[in-house]
Design a protein that fits this description.
The protein is of the alpha+beta class. It has an eight-stranded mixed beta sheet, sandwiched between helices. The chain has a two-stranded antiparallel sheet with strand order 8-9. Strand 3 and strand 4 form a beta hairpin. The longest helix is centred in the middle third of the chain and has 13 residues. The protein starts with a strand and ends with a strand. The mean pLDDT is about 95. Bound molecules: coenzyme A (COA). The site of coenzyme A has 20 residues, from helix 1, strand 5, helix 3 and helix 4.
């Protein structure tokens, strides 16, 4: 069952999801287009889902890596709701939610300037690069903004 965790204003709310997570596959595929890769983190993830007027707009999947670190495995907003601030709100919420018990949030993403800038503007810094991650781990080429993704870039943000 979904747990209502935060009411933002009158219409917007963020819910924490710990069961029936496969129900969110459609929106997860916006952030990560390979269902096999999603299934690798689906069970251990906690999902935070943002609803505006009871309409699902965005999702953030988080796993606890160790006693100090959480990792965002997926952050996505349906295309028709993008650029309205939903993902930023969700990211803020997630960072606040974990800051009492964890020191750092990390995430890996493709080498896509728009995505990297999105995170850098919100306090993340690049830490390392995993060579050939997308070509080695995905069954087909992943293309974003007309460019095939090859390496994975890891970013981190301090929660303290
Ligand atoms: C990245 C994404 C989650 C942003 O969601 P959103 O709800 O539109 O985010 P906000 O409205 O809070 O912020 C908009 C920002 O996203 C950026 N953005 C818009 N479309 C984007 C896209 N297709 N890919 C990456 N970033 C995008 C905008 O440049 C804007 O950045 P700015 O505020 O720094 O100028 C959303 O665009 C998305 O789901 N993209 C596809 C999946 C993806 O690439 N996820 C990121 C890696 S996990």
């Amino acid at each position: 069952m979904d747990k209502e965790v935060k009411q933002i204003g009158l219409k917007m709310e963020i819910r924490e999801v710990t069961s029936n997570k496969a129900d969110y596959m459609e929106i997860l595929l916006i952030g990560d287009e390979d269902e096999l890769m999603i299934n690798k983190y689906l069970e251990q993830s906690t999902f935070f889902v943002l609803y505006d007027n009871d309409i699902l707009t965005s999702i953030c999947a988080v796993i606890e890596i160790d006693s100090e670190t959480v990792e965002i495995k997926n952050l996505a907003t349906y295309p028709e709701y993008q650029n309205k601030g939903y993902a930023s709100k969700l990211l803020d919420y997630v960072c606040n939610r974990y800051k009492e018990k964890f020191r750092t949030v990390i995430l890996g993403t493709g080498e896509n300037e728009t995505t990297l800038n999105f995170y850098k503007k919100r306090g993340f810094v690049e830490t390392r690069r995993i060579k050939n991650f997308f070509t080695d781990n995905y069954s087909h080429p992943i293309v974003e903004n007309g460019k095939q993704l090859v390496d994975m870039i890891y970013l981190k943000k301090s929660l303290t």
